[in-house]
Each structure stands twice: as structure tokens, then as C-alpha cells.
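Researcher: Please translate sequence to C-alpha cells.
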Amino acid sequence: MITLNGSSSEQLKIVIVGHVDHGKSTFVGRLFHDTGSLPEGKLEQLQKVAERRGVPFEWANLMDALQSERDQNITIDTAQIWFQTRKRQYVIIDAPGHKEFLKNMITGAANAEAALLLIDAHEGVQENSRRHGYLLNLLGIRQIAVLVNKMDLENYAESRFKHIESEYRVWLKSIGVEPKVFIPIAARHGDNLASRSPEMPWWNGPTVLEALDDFKLAEPPKDQPLRFPIQDVYRFDDRRILAGRVEAGSIRVGDRVVFSPSNKTSTVKTIERWNAPPAESASAGESIGITLAEQIFVERGAVAALESAPPFELSSFKARLFWLGKQPFAKGKTYKIKLATQEADCRIESIQKVIDASTLETVSRKENEVFVGRHEVAELTLHTRKPIAFDVHSDIAPTGRFVIVDGFEVSGGGIIAPGSYPRRTHSSTTKSTNIYWSEGKITSGQRELRNG
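Model: Translation complete:
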């Protein structure tokens, strides 16, 4: 991978979100142009098409054309390196809507390290602006730049920018988010994208590209306990290769590993790589295959960990969930949970609290109305039909987030919250399969009153 100065292969994944019609497509189209990342002749081609149709050229049309070509693997590099600056390359994670964004982010198919959040200067902060902020916080994205777009519609007024910044900053602070910077822009005209705008002499802060280059690359979680979810099992000659991606920690030849939640153990015999010689170790972020010294039955969904630091293996856990489904997430109905490469049937065990993601107000319902509505966030306890392997999200993120599937639709997702979870040890020879964590209702104060 080559950047403009030909010296760096650094790459940062970003997500660009915003309320409908707040100018995301226009912004991305103009960003491609101003960074010299467009395919040769593409701009002129679309300008001629607009001229033939007798309509004005729109930067948003450029985004749509590139998206269409990317889907067909034409022109756009299949690695999806969408634009670059002199410092690094950037991959834009497409977020056409809440649902796709949530699915991509929660499952880890495309983990963004930073976000650009657009707000229309004319319309101001909308409900979706607040929901997007909450969702970014839920997913643990801490590097956020807020772009106040369409400043030209407000005559580039500093007072309008300050008003929106003040209002949205207060909202973000209420959910524990501290944005890196607010930047006034007019994407259609390229104001403050790659260079400072003469229309806003009052702005002394960074351009969008300067803000992007100031974001930091996250270090892979190499120092955490090993988490290696198995994606598939392949047979080559007489070898059974367990393939997957090391999500956290590291793995070495000779390590004694346990596969959760089946609790089968074996020793790593070899570490295999595609189109590369075998190596003695692998760490977070690497896609590898392993073979085992003792042949045991392992299938997709198992999570390999060192015997000394296994994940939790339970059928009940606390979670914070963001619901996007058309139908409510209701108690009494069975859904499917996907966590890493695991899948299991699940249901609501209990709901502790439901809040409106755009107002942060607690939602009040009648006693018999136990559900989570669209665009609501819940603190709840989920129960799975079989034990699954997981971690608390704040400890190990990749195995602490999940999505909920309703029918065939990814309808919600969330993170696993801290709780009083028992952790199984792997030194014992007998392991019960019918025991799961259940939280007691009696408080320590009640117990003291009863027992003295």
C-alpha cells in the first residue's frame, strides 16, 4: 500500500454518520476530490452526464457512482482504500443507515477507530444526531470530530456554529463523550475540508484533513488474554486446521488451550498462515489456522483461550442493548444472538431500565408491557438456550459485543455489562453442564437484618 509520499502504509478506519440530508454523500464526494483520490476522469465524466441531463452537478452523485462501481468491483480497489492524505490511508466504513452501521460495527466486520459526525448548520441538532452520538458511545468509539456542515446556508455565521457546538457538546457530555473537535464546513464548496476557507476568517482551528491526521491508531489488544474464535475447520492431507482471527492476546506453539464453551482442551501443535511459512506465534489482528497435538472435536463458534485465563461460560448475562427492529424486542419471544462466531437462541430474562436514546429519559410502561421499542436502549438480562463464551465489553471488546437477529434481520446489538459472573476453572476433571448464573434478589442489608 502506497501513500502520496510513498513511505507509509499506516491505515485508519473511520465511520461517517449523520442525519438524513445533512450532507454525508456530498461531504465524501468532495473529500475524494480534494485529496486527489478519484479515479482519473471520473469527475469530468459525471459532470458531462449532468450537463446532458440538464441538471446541476452534485458531489453526492459522485459518491453514488463510486458506491455502485465498488459493489461491482470496478475501478475502486477491492481493499476499499478510499482516500489518503500525506500521513496515512483511510478506509471509510459505509454507514447507509442505523441497521447496517450497527451490524458492521458490533460484529467486528469493520471496526472503526474514529468517527466524523455531520450536523446541518441550518437544521441544527436532530434526534438522529443524538442517537448517533449515543450509538458511537455504546460501541466504544472515543475519537470523534463533529462537522457542522452547510455553513453557507447560514452565511458562515460564527454565532450559528457556536450555538450548535454548545448545544451538542452538552448532550455528548451527558453520555460521557468528549469530542476531539468541532469544525465548521461547507462540503459543497470544500470550505475547511482540505484547506482553510476564506469565507470563515474567524476559524483558527484545524481543517477536516488535519483533524483526521491527528487521530491516533489503536494498538491491537496483544497484552490481553487470548481470544481466538473459530470461524471454520478445514482438512488438508491428514491435518485438521482450525481457522479464525486472533481477536485479543497472543498464541504460541506449545500453548495449552481450552475451547469454550465445550471445555475441551488440547495443545497447539502448529500455527499456519496462508501464503506464508509457519511461525511459532501469532497475535491480535492476525488471521491464522492452528493444528492440535491431541485431536478433539472442535467446530465453528468455539473460542480458544489459555487455560489460565478463560472467558465466562454462562447462559445468562447483563447487557446494554440498542434496538433498531421494526417490531419491539419483547419478553417471551425467542431471538438469535450472534457473538464472535457463536450463534444461540436467546430471550429476555428481565429488563432493568429502558431509555430513549435521543432524550436519555427513562421510558415508563405498564407492568405487563415488557419490551424494548425501536431506537430505545435497555439495560437488561439475557438468557441463552445454551451456554456461550463471552467477556465483559470493557475488559475484552471483541468477545463482549453481540447482535440480535429477529427472523432474518439484524435488529439490535449491544455490549455485555459487568456482573457477578462465576468463572469456571479448567483444572477440575468434572464439569456440570446444567448450572448457570442466577442473580439473587436479596440485598446484603436484607440478609443482615434476617441473620443478624
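Researcher: Any highlights?
Model: The chain has a mean pLDDT of 83.
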